[in-house]
């Protein structure tokens, strides 16, 4: 048994080295050539993530001990077998029977924005317009004269009167400061009068392509800016200083570690990526980051950014290109094939002309890039699939290899909230990954059916339907749009019920715990070409795992919401430990 484990470790380590171009981590060996562990974890309920698809629920492979050498897993198995890797300097950690699983890989988030939110006006969860205004006023009273007041997270659907706030609502508490406050989904925002003046948005200002300025009956802007109309205000808001960016990022990284997130697939700004590099250089990067680049950047700019950091760096590298097909359901800017059921004159705001989109997609796939398109409405999804079909054909005809040197380009659709059965089949045919955030449903179920009507709603947030068709699911949170906790997402995937258990949303689309965990681990690893590195606890894989206070494969779903992370380990190092 021990010989088999040792040989397997060496073989997988060699394979990882060949795949990444990086040397395999050296491992101390005793006389006779058997490697010795740096750390051995014992007495655990270790869920390895290795699941027999034909077996019954809960039958995923379990072990009781785990040995680490460097940043890799050396051995997993029975305590007596794993303890044979103990050396004179090996540290032993008793897990006291707690549940261990592969670290969560959040397949979609905005790390720097999450950190900055902690330093701006936090409007998440405000229940009334008065509370919204009170939080703005509290920030205004502490601000320097003329300082911009920035905030995020409001959601008018939670308010008794579900009306959007206006510039005049904000003016009354802004004290002469320019104010800009993004909605929770980031696809619309409200600016006060001073902010509109600085952005030169007036009665005469035209709506930009892909955006809309809301107006009252006289044509006066109300302060609500949708999609690309936000750009004018964002252009005049002073950029955060380097110091503020780093402080924000460090706050967000600590938050990730405390929730068991060991890998993040992130879309922040290039300045933020450079700060990630600084933090890595300082030895303080506690989460593996695959940083997305903007789809709209030129090929020359994309190549410059991609080439600036080694792709073989397992802690930090650039990843796919992120583009936007549409907006969000909450702000009614998601592009739909038919109008909104509760807004018959509105079908959302597509962000691209189809011909331009298809040409840009083909060019970037031929240049060797993976792409992920934000698409929430069924029209947005259809636009993305059409572009992918054309690009994949061109790449195969030209014999262009994918990122990993294979022929699977692993093109992705982010969110994919509203789909048709026909387009779900196209996901499978084109091998497109559905990168979804189940916790969105906990917010959206209060109004999604009214936006879509029952026919479309039946195929919305369709996790089970995707899996039945053989489509790869990758789960994330869209943090800070939703809280970063993966347990909230797992609860949503298992129940499709509100957190208070009172409301259900098309339960036919529920999935089971092992499917949900796989989407947060092996599925998200596959979505970033990292399935040979992480997502399972096997010899040779990166030593990324979490220790929880309960077995989430066996706990009643409501109790999953109460799960606590006891320890988070990244590359063999504990980056978080509960007090």
Can you describe this structure in just a few lines?
The chain has 579 residues and is of the alpha/beta class.
Tell me what you see in this structure:
It is a single chain. The protein has 579 residues and is of the alpha/beta class. Among the domains are: 96 residues, Urease, subunit C, domain 1 (Roll); 124 residues, Diaminopimelate Epimerase, Chain A, domain 1, CATH 3.10.310. The protein is built from 20 helices and 24 strands. The two termini are 37 Å apart.
Task: Name the features.
alpha/beta, Urease, subunit C, domain 1, 579 residues, 33% helix, disordered N terminus
Number of helices: 20
β-strand percent reads 15-25%
User: Count the strands?
Assistant: 24
Rg (CA only): 24 Å
CATH architecture of the domain at 111-234: Roll
List the strand order in the largest sheet.
8-15-16-17-18-19-20-21
Helix content: 25-40%
Structural class: alpha/beta
Name the quaternary structure: single chain
Major sheet characteristics: 8 strands, parallel
Shape: globular
Uncertain runs: 1-28, 53-58
What gap, in angstroms, lies between the N and C termini? 37 Å
What would the average pLDDT be, to the nearest integer?
Answer: 92
Look at the structure and give the CATH class of the domain at 111-234. Answer: Alpha Beta
As for the CATH topology of the domain at 111-234, it is: Diaminopimelate Epimerase, Chain A, domain 1
